[in-house]
Design a protein that fits this description.
Radius of gyration: 22 Å
Number of strands: 10
CATH superfamily of the largest domain: Butyryl-CoA Dehydrogenase, subunit A, domain 3
Number of domains: 3
Helix content: 40-55%
Strand order of the largest sheet: 3-6-7-10
Shape: globular
CATH class of the largest domain: Mainly Alpha
């Protein structure tokens, strides 16, 4: 048995003891659509700690920051095996996919050694604080302010749509530190303690019944001066690292090695069997179409992760994956609803399949907003791939303080 085969066997054994095989009764309870209540968060932390103790966390992260220092091939093997299980690790997606990579890239050594291992062990959950009520797609137009006060920064402002903020220990926050320069040049990125005095987190009720999104208020929150990522005024450059990682994490986060497993369409197959429609040619065509699209997205994800593992920087492929994933989520929920028929609207108590369909239908639209809207992704592809001219921007080179605001 070679190293990769031994590793695959070790991963499979770990997942059999700590995960729940897809298709097993109760597996859906661990799915990310189940929400993020305190019990789920505790379960996720316990799973992550077990994963860390087993030497399976941070496979490609540097050893000095708690990782295993392995090649991307081992992460692919892990993801391939994990695709057959439901694992409660969704709460760490933003931390591992966006926040900690930004800390490792732009943070001082004391920040990397303090925060990366603790996050990897599952001790601390992270969030990303960019969007504001008046600056969603136009992130550089944000108005939260950070003012230097001796050895600290004073942060004030409001963020919104912050995923899982109510469960987080820390976050990376983008704020304006110099309003007298153009909007992209006066930003800085900080690590903020989500339990510090002056931080208020208010969950927002969503149409799917969950409260994974939050609005966050900062009222003169004190941040140590050495908790800045990059230099003052370099926030936009640092934010691009986060955004790039975000689109890769969202769009290319899934992985299958050979495309043989049916996890993405298992619910559709179960519904077709349950409703006696497996022989329906239209249903069969819909399901096969979804399988093909999921497989294409898998291959794109493998390409992106291979680039990252080789030390490269993902380009617009991350935006392609993000856009494709959002569109596919809508198509997937539409197909599930068509197969389920009336039970997707009114169902018997205890009909878990129908409940899952409804969750899919009500949750899918968020994919076109979270992590950058589909319209923004299309603009990026138009400019960076097709070479189309940039969208007109009259305030790009104007000092932020001179831009009229409501």
């Amino acid at each position: 048995m070679n190293d990769e085969e031994e590793f695959r066997s070790r991963v499979r054994t770990f997942l059999e003891h700590n995960g729940v095989a897809r298709g097993v009764s109760g597996a859906g309870d661990l799915d990310e659509s189940a929400g993020g209540d305190d019990e789920m968060v505790s379960h996720a932390k316990a799973f992550q700690r077990a994963k860390f103790d087993a030497g399976l966390a941070g496979l490609t992260w540097p050893v000095e920051y708690g990782g295993q220092g392995l090649s991307g091939r081992y992460q692919t093997i892990y993801n391939d095996e994990a695709s057959n299980f439901v694992t409660p690790d969704f709460i760490f997606t933003i931390g591992f996919g966006m926040c900690i990579p930004t800390v490792l890239t732009h943070g001082a050594e004391h920040l990397r050694t303090r925060y990366a291992p603790a996050a990897l062990r599952g001790d601390e959950i992270w969030c990303q604080l960019f969007s504001e009520p008046s600056a969603g797609s136009d992130v550089a137009g944000l108005q939260s302010r950070a003012i230097r006060d001796g050895d600290e920064w004073l942060l004030s402002g409001q963020k919104v749509w912050t995923t899982q903020a109510q469960h987080c220990s820390f976050g990376i926050v983008l704020a304006r530190t110099n309003p007298d320069v153009p909007k992209h040049k006066g930003l800085s990125m900080f690590i903020v303690d989500m339990h510090a005095p002056g931080v208020t987190v208010r969950p927002l009720r969503q149409m799917n019944g969950g409260s994974s999104f939050n609005e966050v208020f900062f009222d003169d929150v004190r941040i140590p001066a050495d908790h800045i990522l990059g230099e003052p005024g370099e926030g936009w450059r640092v934010a691009l690292t986060t955004l790039m990682n975000e689109r890769v994490a969202i769009g290319a986060g899934r992985s299958t090695e050979d495309g043989s497993h049916l996890a993405p369409i298992q619910l559709h197959l179960d519904l077709a069997t349950k409703h006696g429609r497996r022989g329906d040619p239209v249903v069969r065509q819909d399901i096969v179409g979804l399988f093909i699209e999921y497989r294409i997205l898998d291959l794109l994800g493998l390409r992106i992760r291979s680039t990252v593992a080789a030390g490269g920087i993902p380009g617009p492929e991350g935006s392609v994956a993000k856009l494709s994933g959002a569109l596919l989520a809508r198509r997937s929920s539409d197909v599930a609803a068509r197969i389920a028929g009336l039970s997707a609207t009114a169902w018997s108590e205890g009909d878990r399949d129908a409940q899952r369909v409804v969750q899919m239908v009500l949750t899918a639209p968020a994919g076109a907003i979270a992590g950058g809207t589909s319209e923004v992704m299309r603009n990026i592809l138009g400019e960076r791939v097709l070479g189309l001219p940039r969208e007109p921007s009259v305030d790009r080179d104007v000092p932020f303080s001179a831009i009229p605001r409501h």
